[in-house]
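Hey team,

Filing this mostly as a record. A colleague (T.K.) asked me to run one chain through the structure pipeline before their review meeting, and I want the input and output archived in the tracker in case anyone asks later how it was produced. No errors, nothing strange. Just documentation.

Input sequence:
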Amino acid sequence: MTGSTRHPHSGGPASIEPEDLYRTRPPWDIGRPQPVFEALATAGAVRGRVLDVGCGTGEHAVMAAGLGLDATGVDLAANALRAAEDKAQVRGRTVRFLRYDARRLAELGETFDIVLDCGLFHIFSGEDRTTYVEALRSVVPPGGRYFMLGFSDRQPGEYAVVHKLTRAEIEAAFADGWRVDSIEPSTIHITTDPDGIRAWLVTLTRI
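Output structure:
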């Protein structure tokens, strides 16, 4: 899906082309799955049809495919998707990668048992956030789950594009049609800081 490409993953609020963030390796592209998502996979929580939304270079979609699952990754950065396809091929994984705006997931006409979101939800605010959550609701059937890793309000400093998340705003965003199973302190690993980024790991079930 082409169209507005203002954010690293899916047309978010900042005036930046998503491809610009992948011309050199961005700090969140650590060359492996985020450890908390890898732990979910090891525990058997990643199952069925899996959507890696805002997939970047595809680590989590490739991880799901490595479990023998039907895996799809969506992003708006064409160069990141090319890297993801190359990665899947080198690792011998079958993954479908699509250039698609995450706010328009309903247009896929598909449903997924699991949605993995590393670093996408936290770019949205206001109407964009509402639209994104509605899009998620359209592709996750009752009983399906959404796992989100996003910047926490405990992280010091200010960051372009990213909105640091509070528990209250996460709960408010998913008040309709979701059960919040857990919101746990976590870490987003990055290449530029061994301590990583303070984050929330959010687990929700579609009801």
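Quick notes for T.K.: The mean pLDDT is 92. The two ends are 28 Å apart (CA to CA).
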